[in-house]
Write a sequence for this structure.
C-alpha cells in the first residue's frame, strides 16, 4: 500500500499516513504542487517554520517505463517567492516509488541548532545526528554515506551554501555512478538547510515492485513509447551523441545565444565550447559521451567529461551550464568550464543560477571577463565557503545585480534567465515572463518550435503565435513533469502521434484507471492554474509577469531586435 | 555561384565543417542537400543569416547556408 511520510522537524516525529483518494493518481509536480498549495501559507517566509519541503516520485517512477525515474521536489522558493517544483534524476525517485512512498512532506524546524540526517527505510524515517557531516561539501557527504552503508544507499544532500540558506543552493542527488544530479532551480537547498537537514539517506532494503493495475495494457504502451523515443532523431540519436550542448551552434547561428551577459546574440568563439567540440574532446580523451542520470534512461544525454590524462572532471555537463560559463561569461576553455561545473555540484548551487550570476559579477567587475580560473576560485572559496562576497553572489543573480547597482540583470521573479535570448526567440520570452516558477526554459520549451522545428514551426522573431505556443507547452509540461519522465520525451511526443497516447496509457495502466489524453492535459492545466493562484495569494500580480526593462531598451545583434510584447499581450497566456 | 556551406553535428561525418562551394545559379537548399548526399527527411534546420529557410528556398551568390540535422536539448 502506498503511503505518505509526514516528517515533523519541530518535534522530530514521522507519521505514516494513508494516501488520500484524491492523490491516488497524482505524482511528481502534480502532487508536490497540490500539497504545497494546500498546506503552505502563500505569504509565509520561505525559510521559516511554515514552509514545507515535499518530495514526490513521478506517476511512473519505479515502473519499467523508460526514462521515468525522476523525483519532484516542491516548496515555496526562497529565490522567487513563488511556488516551486524542481525535478531531478538520481536514484531516490525509483527507491521511493518501490518503497511505496507516494510523497514525503517535511515540515516545521528544530527548536535548537542541531543538524539532522533523515534516514528513510521501509519502517519510516529516523532522525540521525548529522554533526559529523556539517561543513562538508556534497561529494564528501556522498563518500561518507557510501562508507557508512554501501553504494546502494540513496543520498540527497546540501553543501555549505544550503546550510547557510543561500538562495541559489540546490539539493544534490546521488546518481547511479556515485556522482550528482540536482533539484537545481529555485533554492530548495536553502529550504532544506532552514530545516537543519544536512542530508537524506534512503535504504530501500525490503522494497517490492511498483504495483501495476493493468500489466498487459502497461506493457503494450511501454513498448510503443520506448520505440518512439528510439525512433525520433533527437532522442534516439542527437542527444546520446552530442548531449544537450549541441544547442550552442544552432542558437549561435540563429542569433539567439546570449553572450557577455546578454549583450550580443552570437559569440565568436562558440565552436570552442560547442557540443560537437565537446563530443570530439570526450572521445579523444577516452571519456563517455553517453550516460544516464538514472537507471532506465534510454536517451542518455549525459556524459562523463575527462581531462587530457583521462581523469574524471564532471558529468551532466549541460548546455545551459556550458552556455552560461563558456559563452555568457566568455570562458573559452572547456576544461575550465567543466571544473566550474563540478565545483557547483560539489558546493551545491544551481548550475544555471551559478553561471548567470557570475556573468553579472563580471559585469560588475568582481571577476575579469572570461577568467575561468578566478571563477573556479570564487566558486570554491567565496560561494563555497559563504564569505560575505560569497553570500552576495550565492543569493543569486538578482542579489548580485542589486549589490552592484546594475540594470542588465537577467531575471524574472528573481530567477536567472537561461540560455536563450527572449528578444530573438520570442516564444521563450513569454515562458520566462509567465512561468509560475520564475524564469525557466523547461516550463514551456518554445525553443523546440521556434528554433528546432520540432512540433511545427513558429518564427522566433515574430510575435504572432508565441503566446499560444508557450501556453500549450506550459500546460503539457506540467502534466509531463508529473509523470517522472525526463522532459526530453517531449521531442517524440510532439512529433510522433502515437507517443503521447502511449504515455497516457502507461499512466492509466499504472493506476488501473481510465485516462484519455484530454484528461491528462486537463490535469496539467488544473495544476498550472493552481500554482498561479497560489502565487497570486503570495502577492504576485500580472505586473510580475514581465521581463526586465533592458530587454525593451537594448536591441540585440545580429537581428537588432528588442522585447516588444505589451503587458496585455503577455497576460493573454492565462486565458484558458 | 559561390555558396559557403556550414555543416553541424552528424552532418559533418565524412563531409566537412565549412566549405565554399560552387553551385549552379538559382540552386535551392534542396539542391545543395542533394549535392551533399543528405536526404530531405534528415534535415532539421537550414539557416541563412540567422533566419530559417525551407528546402525550396533559392540561394543567392555569396550567401552562407548553415545546415543542421534534427537535434535538440534543453
Ligand atoms: S535523457 Fe538526460 S536528463 Fe533525461 S533521463 Fe536521460 S540522462 Fe537524464
Amino acid at each position: 500500500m502506498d503511503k505518505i511520510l509526514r516528517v515533523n522537524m519541530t518535534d522530530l516525529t514521522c507519521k505514516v499516513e494513508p494516501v488520500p483518494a484524491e492523490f491516488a493518481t497524482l505524482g511528481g509536480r502534480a502532487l508536490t504542487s497540490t500539497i504545497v498549495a494546500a498546506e503552505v501559507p502563500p505569504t509565509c517566509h520561505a525559510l521559516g517554520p511554515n514552509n514545507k519541503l515535499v518530495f514526490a516520485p513521478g506517476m511512473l517512477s519505479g515502473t519499467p517505463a523508460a526514462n521515468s525515474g525522476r523525483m519532484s521536489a516542491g516548496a515555496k522558493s526562497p529565490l522567487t517567492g513563488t511556488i516551486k517544483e524542481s525535478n531531478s534524476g538520481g536514484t531516490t525517485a525509483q527507491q521511493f516509488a518501490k518503497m511505496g512512498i507516494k510523497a514525503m512532506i517535511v515540515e516545521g524546524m528544530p527548536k535548537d541548532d542541531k543538524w539532522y540526517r533523515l534516514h528513510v527505510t521501509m519502517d519510516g524515517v529516523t532522525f540521525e545526528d548529522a554533526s559529523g557531516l556539517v561543513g562538508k561539501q556534497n561529494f564528501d557527504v556522498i563518500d561518507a554515506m557510501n562508507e557508512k552503508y554501501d553504494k546502494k544507499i540513496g543520498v540527497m544532500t546540501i553543501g555549505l551554501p544550503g546550510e547557510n540558506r543561500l538562495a541559489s543552493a540546490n539539493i544534490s542527488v546521488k546518481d547511479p555512478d556515485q556522482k550528482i544530479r540536482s533539484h537545481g532551480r529555485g533554492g530548495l537547498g536553502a529550504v532544506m538547510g532552514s530545516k537543519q537537514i544536512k542530508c537524506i539517506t534512503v535504504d530501500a532494503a525490503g522494497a517490492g515492485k511498483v504495483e501495476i493495475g493493468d500489466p498487459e495494457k502497461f506493457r503494450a504502451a511501454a513498448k510503443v513509447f520506448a520505440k518512439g523515443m528510439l525512433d525520433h532523431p533527437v532522442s534516439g540519436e542527437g542527444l546520446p551523441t552530442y548531449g544537450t550542448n549541441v544547442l550552442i551552434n544552432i542558437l549561435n547561428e540563429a542569433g539567439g545565444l546570449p553572450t557577455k551577459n546578454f549583450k550580443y546574440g552570437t559569440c565568436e568563439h562558440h565552436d570552442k565550447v560547442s557540443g560537437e567540440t565537446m563530443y570530439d574532446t570526450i572521445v579523444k580523451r577516452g571519456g563517455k559521451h553517453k550516460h544516464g542520470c538514472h537507471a532506465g534512461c534510454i536517451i542518455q544525454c549525459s556524459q562523463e567529461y575527462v581531462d587530457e590524462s583521462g581523469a574524471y572532471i564532471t558529468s551532466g555537463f549541460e548546455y545551459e551550464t556550458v552556455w552560461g560559463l563558456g559563452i555568457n561569461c566568455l570562458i573559452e576553455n572547456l576544461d575550465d568550464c567543466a571544473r566550474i561545473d563540478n565545483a557547483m555540484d560539489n558546493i551545491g548551487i544551481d548550475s544555471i543560477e551559478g553561471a548567470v550570476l557570475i556573468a553579472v559579477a563580471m559585469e560588475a567587475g568582481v571577476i575579469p571577463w572570461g577568467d575561468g580560473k578566478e571563477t573556479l576560485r570564487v566558486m570554491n572559496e567565496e560561494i563555497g565557503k559563504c564569505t560575505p562576497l560569497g553570500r552576495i553572489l550565492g543569493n543569486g543573480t538578482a542579489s548580485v545585480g542589486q549589490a552592484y547597482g546594475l540594470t542588465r540583470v537577467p531575471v524574472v521573479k528573481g530567477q536567472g534567465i537561461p540560455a536563450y535570448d527572449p528578444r530573438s526567440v520570442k516564444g521563450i520570452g513569454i515562458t520566462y515572463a509567465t512561468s509560475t516558477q520564475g524564469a525557466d526554459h523547461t516550463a514551456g520549451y518554445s525553443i523546440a518550435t521556434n528554433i528546432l522545428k520540432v512540433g511545427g514551426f513558429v518564427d522566433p522573431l515574430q510575435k504572432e503565435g508565441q503566446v499560444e505556443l508557450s501556453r500549450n507547452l506550459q500546460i503539457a509540461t506540467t502534466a509531463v513533469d508529473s509523470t517522472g519522465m525526463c522532459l526530453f520525451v517531449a521531442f517524440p511526443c510532439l512529433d510522433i502521434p502515437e507517443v503521447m497516447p502511449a504515455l497516457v496509457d502507461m499512466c492509466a495502466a499504472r493506476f488501473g484507471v481510465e485516462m484519455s489524453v484530454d484528461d491528462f492535459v486537463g490535469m496539467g492545466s488544473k495544476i498550472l492554474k493552481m500554482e498561479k493562484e497560489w502565487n497570486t495569494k503570495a502577492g504576485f500580480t500580472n505586473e510580475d509577469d514581465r521581463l526586465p526593462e533592458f530587454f525593451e531598451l537594448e536591441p540585440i545583434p545580429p537581428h537588432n531586435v528588442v522585447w516588444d510584447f505589451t503587458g496585455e499581450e503577455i497576460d493573454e497566456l492565462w486565458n484558458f | 555561384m559561390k555558396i559557403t556551406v556550414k555543416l553541424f553535428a552528424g552532418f559533418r561525418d565524412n563531409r566537412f565543417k565549412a566549405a565554399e562551394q560552387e553551385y549552379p545559379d538559382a540552386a535551392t537548399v534542396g539542391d545543395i542537400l542533394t549535392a551533399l548526399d543528405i536526404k530531405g527527411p534528415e534535415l532539421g534546420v537550414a539557416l541563412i543569416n540567422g533566419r530559417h529557410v525551407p528546402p525550396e528556398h533559392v540561394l543567392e551568390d555569396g550567401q552562407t547556408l548553415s545546415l543542421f540535422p534534427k537535434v535538440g536539448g534543453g
Q: What stands out?
A: The longest strand of chain B covers residues 2-7. Chain B is about 10% helix and 35% strand. Residues 2-69 of chain B form a domain with the Ubiquitin-like (UB roll) fold (CATH 3.10.20.30). Chain B has one domain: 2-69.
